[in-house]
Amino acid sequence: MRVVRRLAALAGAAALLVAIPANARAASPKLSETTAIGTHNAYDKAKYTYFAQALDSGASLLELDVYVDSLSHRWRVSHSNPLGNDNNCEAAKTPSELYSKSRNQDLGSCLDNIAAWNQLHPDHPPIVFKVEMKVGFNNNAGLGPDEFDTLVSQKLGNSVYKPADLLGGTYSSLDAAARANAWPSRDSLKGKFLFELIPGTVEKSNPFDHYWTDQEYGDHLRDLYAAGKTAEAQAFPAVLGAENGDPRTSRYDASIRPWFVFFDGDAATYVNNGYDTSFYSANHYILITTGADGVSPAISSTNPTDAEVAARLALLAKDHASIITSDWSAKPASVLGSVTARG
């Protein structure tokens, strides 16, 4: 009977789905008021031949896995090779070079590709780059939050929507700004990128590492604000892992809790366990729900039907997600670019 009810809910959700085209002229909702679709591990050559094609996909979130290579002082992009690059980012710095150069480049080149693509598509909808720091930062080797900020800033300049933009010179923390729904409209974010940072799988399994990416960047944001230098920060740290209630309370000390307004967890854990996700939309936090295909009843993780994607988007929008993700790179931009009202 539960499955029947869930199927009925899916059908109803699909019927309620209202996509918001990227070029809509109606009043634009705020970023915090919509739900969109993202692609897991978009740097994978099996998903897209070139990273520029991932940008072309229409997806509102693209994931990059980054290793700090302390030996060569490089930011590697790879799923499992910490000392090399294995990805679809190419040695292309200009629009004319995209879709043609050698791949397997470092994070700097991925950012070059993004900058070049941005010149071709200056009015694109906002795109979130979810950066998993596989082994965390290594500040002692000069590969810490400061250096990450510098690299992103040098490559992308004012095309990044930053924590300081959300603060707007008005609020004393990101939490205060989010609760006031100070997020901009989607229209005003055309041509903009946002960076979300999460701790990595290797980092979390390292018994000698108890200072993960989320805490380190949270400390970084707090300290920059205290020094009057918040504008230097290029990313939003995310609370990783689905929990019921506010997960910041048990994970971070009071000094950095207000610097987390991005949350990232497994969609099925949130939904199938009946967690109260209204907490996120009530406070206008950005909630990224991964593995959207795994919510009961499960659908294909690679190539579901368009109707199944639409129904899943509508269902998770009602469950207060901001972005849902899966390995749906095979779907066209007309599907991956779908945006609907949240909650």
From TrEMBL:
Alphabetic keyword roster: Signal
Signal sequence extent: 1-24
Transmembrane annotation, as ranges: none
Protein name: Lipoprotein
GO MF term set: phosphoric diester hydrolase activity
Alphabetical list of Pfam families matching this protein: PI-PLC-C1
One GO BP annotation of this record: lipid metabolic process
Entry keyword annotation includes Nucleus: no
InterPro entries membership: PI-PLC-C1, PLC-like_Pdiesterase_TIM-brl
